[in-house]
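Onboarding guide, step 5: your first structure request.
Type a short instruction followed by the sequence, for example:

Predict the 3D structure of this protein.
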Amino acid sequence: MKLEFYTSVGGTAFWNALVRDLQACGKQAAVVSVMDEPEYRRPRNLLGKLLLRWKLYAGMSLHTRRHLRQPVRQPTCRIATTNPFFLPGLVCGQTSADSDVRVVNLVFDLYPEAMELSGRRMSPGARQRLEAVTRRAVQQCDATVFLGGQLHDHALEKYGPARQSAVIPVGADARPFASSPPEMLPCEHPVQFLYCGLLGRMHEVETLAQLGRGEPVPGCGWKFHATGAGTDALRGGWFQLGGPLAPADWTGAMQSAQVGIVSVRPGAEKAVLPSKTYSALAAGQAILAICPQQSDLADLVAGQDCGWVVEPGDVDGLRRRIQEITTDRDTLLVKRRNAFRAGQQRYDSATVAGHWVALVEGLFA
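The system replies with structure tokens like these:
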């Protein structure tokens, strides 16, 4: 049996680890994409950005169509992410109903919700067409997979019913951090807070920006290795800002931080669940989540007792929480150990691979 994952950007630590662990389970696995993450993240001028967008959408469409014309020589599950949004529908539509193939719709971001939250204006007609694309994918694919329970319930209430549905977290490659469990941080050492990844329009930025424009909180250091539209709002504050990390530097940076920052703006909890959460857990970072209380991210933090949740807009509450984190090192260590345990066991790519094997084998049963 073979699993094929279709997504415009591959080559990430997560995809590489998932393929490795699926192969360890005795399955063939491959990622079909048009570029890897380093190419996707590199700086571009205006022309470069236009070419990137063409490649992610039209280029991925053409590449997928070519790949789907290849003969199928064994039972195959084609798992198409919503990156880009039309990909699950394309793969489903191009797959013969009588072939030994199953198609899974993997909802990374929910459209048109994700597009509207990113600030793009849409006419009622355009919104209805995007909703129709999502509805067809949910209802026509053999299964639809969501990243969180609340995302699952919201999407199926609006776009369902699905033939079959499941919740499978993104997870992370936990191996680089397995031999470095959290230890007590001496009081004379500042607590390091880290944001590492995309900081886009669906992330809560203004609460962080207001914190950074106020008085620095003693006993801690804040680093943002981020790209995206939200980074501009953080300039001029007391945060340390930097660009994306090279793969060789990423592991060390993750291990040097005690608290990982994750944010979701109000409304976006119905469309996304930041994947950076899982790598932070695997590295033993307690999670400081700035997000609505009614969200999958908040549920994860509470369920694993691995951090703290602050409502978007509550700058004073965020400041108080940071002060508590920096002064109560015992509680910080407990949260970090819980995070490490969850990241190394519950959300490790090997565990996630097991969920995929169970789902796919069930589709062929």
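Each response can be followed by summary notes, for example: The chain has a mean pLDDT of 95.
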